[in-house]
């Protein structure tokens, strides 16, 4: 009986791991915001083997993590690093959006709309409303800010962002909906040149 129970626990845990892997799996670079505020990122890049080896890249990642956690504590963790053909996938977990921002050098905020305003974000851009993952119509700023308790993710990067809820509004510039909870930010150029994207959800 004891062996049967242990076997069932193992199967259950494997199922959880599998579900987690599916939840944060994608073919393009994506930031997954978790309900409790932690962040999982999946970076998908083409690997030029004439310049980089898998071992060199993994060593660089490890060194960067050790450097960051040495200053900020164990707030960043590498979940996996895989290379298939010419494609490299790096999955990381961060305690908060602040750790993601600090580790990657990317502007990133997550909180309520009212707290974002208190932090100096002015929401001064064009928005459209969203319903069931579909673009509806252009939205006035007053409508975007009407619900103080709505959540907002604000990021300056060309990447997909998946939020733990249904998107209500999203800034118009360089964005494309990929469902009710995911936005693809499609600007050209580097992350430094990307637009500041607002994603309001509940």
Any chance you could write out the topology, listing elements then pairs?
Layout: H1 2-23, E1 30-33, E2 39-46, H2 54-72, E3 76-84, E4 87-94, H3 97-104, E5 108-112, H4 113-118, E6 127-131, E7 134-139, H5 141-144, E8 151-155, E9 160-162, E10 167-171, E11 175-177, E12 182-185, E13 197-201
Parallel strand pairs: 1-9
Antiparallel strand pairs: 1-2, 2-4, 3-4, 5-8, 6-7, 6-10, 8-13, 9-12, 10-13, 11-12
- The fraction of residues assigned to DSSP E strands is 25-35%
- Distance separating the two termini: 45 Å
Quickly count the domains: 2
H and E string:
HEEHEEHEHEEHEEEEEE
What does this structure look like?
This protein has 202 residues and is of the alpha+beta class. The chain has two domains: 80 residues, Alpha-Beta Plaits (2-Layer Sandwich), CATH 3.30.70; 96 residues, no CATH class. The protein is 29% helix and 35% strand. A seven-stranded mixed beta sheet has the order 3-4-2-1-9-12-11. The chain has a six-stranded antiparallel beta sheet with strand order 5-8-13-10-6-7. A hairpin with a 4-residue loop joins strand 11 and strand 12. The termini are far apart. 25% of the residues are buried. The N terminus is likely disordered.
């Amino acid at each position: 009986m004891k062996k049967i129970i242990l076997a069932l626990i193992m199967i259950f845990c494997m199922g959880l791991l599998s579900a987690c892997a599916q939840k944060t799996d994608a073919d393009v670079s994506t930031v997954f915001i978790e309900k409790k505020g932690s962040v999982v990122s999946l970076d998908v890049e083409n690997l030029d083997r004439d310049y980089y080896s898998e071992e060199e890249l993994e060593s660089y990642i490890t060194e960067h993590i050790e450097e960051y956690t040495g200053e900020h504590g164990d707030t960043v963790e590498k979940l996996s690093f895989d290379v298939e053909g010419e494609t490299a996938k790096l999955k990381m977990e961060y305690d908060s959006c602040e750790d993601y921002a600090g580790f990657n050098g990317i502007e990133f905020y997550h909180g309520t709309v009212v707290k974002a305003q208190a932090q100096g974000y002015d929401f001064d851009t064009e928005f459209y409303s969203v319903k069931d993952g579909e673009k509806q119509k252009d939205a006035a700023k007053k409508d975007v800010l009407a619900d103080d308790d709505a959540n907002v993710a604000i990021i300056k990067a060309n990447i997909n962002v998946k939020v733990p809820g249904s998107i209500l509004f999203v800034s118009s510039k360089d964005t494309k909906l990929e469902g009710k909870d995911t936005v693809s930010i499609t600007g050209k150029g580097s992350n430094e040149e990307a637009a500041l994207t607002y994603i309001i959800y509940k």
